């Protein structure tokens, strides 16, 4: 596994654990078989009582513009449309932590998707995802719930 | 990859393709890393507009009783509870095709789960899953829809 891939893998696993602790059922795409993965799946899918969030995960050493290939973006949006879910670019940054850039599921993607560093900087953390999904229970409640259901 | 594992893998892929054609967003657990897979994920998760079905996939050469380990069953049910989905044992048989045994998501699992061959024989095909999820559009509609959204 390349160093870059290993970093991406760690970020995905961290996101999976965060979402699981919040009560979601979470599935990560195959770590190996990068070809299959890119063809079919987003990096991470999280479901809580029928509410769905779909993530493409990017880990970066610093705040910078992020570019996502046209095809990868289309797959993410298509998966989200079928699932009835919300698509996100989940960006992992040192010190800052997670930033979640919500995409419009109906966007027509004709080019590489550029996400400005300003957009990333202003994007919400995981609380923004919970709000988008209309999950109103507090983090605290989820943590308690998680202790009972795991 | 062992011969048995290869057969299971083919069955999973077939189920993924079937569900995808029906309009679902579908995700399959990692094919490699069997340890991780058993710990965390069901074999296949399918989502259609917030309706969720979760599958443990079994491929068999003939109709026979099927046994599923306690822990594997618990993981399946726990995932389904979090997702707000319906858990199934999906059995692939030669000539007969797919049979879907719906589990009660609230079952307390204290032992290996035994599914009688009579139960398997009587179980519905994919149409049963669509009915369970209250998906009332016909297969035909889905096939047309799929052509537009893929």
UniProtKB/TrEMBL annotation, chains A, B:
Cofactor(s) the record lists: Mg(2+)
Oligomer and partners: Homodimer.
Organism: Zestosphaera tikiterensis
Name this protein carries in UniProt: Crossover junction endodeoxyribonuclease Hjc
InterPro entries: Hjc (IPR002732), Hjc_arc (IPR014428), Restrct_endonuc-II-like (IPR011335), tRNA_endonuc-like_dom_sf (IPR011856)
Name of one Pfam family that matches: Hjc
Gene of this entry: hjc
SUPFAM superfamilies: Restriction endonuclease-like (SSF52980)
Gene3D superfamilies in the record: 3.40.1350.10
Organism phylogeny: Archaea, Thermoproteota, Thermoprotei, Desulfurococcales, Desulfurococcaceae
Active site: 32
């Amino acid at each position: 596994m390349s160093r870059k891939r290993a970093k991406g893998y760690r970020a995905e696993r961290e996101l999976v654990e965060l979402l699981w602790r919040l009560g979601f059922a979470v599935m990560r795409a195959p770590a190996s078989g990068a070809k299959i993965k890119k063809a079919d799946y987003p990096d991470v899918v999280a479901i809580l009582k029928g509410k769905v969030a779909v993530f493409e995960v990017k880990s970066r050493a610093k705040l910078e513009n992020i570019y996502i290939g046209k095809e990868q973006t289309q797959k993410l949006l298509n998966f989200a449309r079928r699932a009835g879910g919300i698509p996100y670019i989940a960006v992992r940054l040192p010190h800052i932590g997670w930033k979640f850039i919500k995409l419009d599921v109906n966007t027509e993607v004709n080019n590489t998707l550029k996400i400005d560093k300003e957009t990333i900087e202003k994007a919400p953390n995981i609380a923004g995802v919970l709000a988008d999904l209309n999950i109103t229970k507090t983090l605290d409640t989820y943590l308690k719930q998680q202790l009972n259901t795991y």
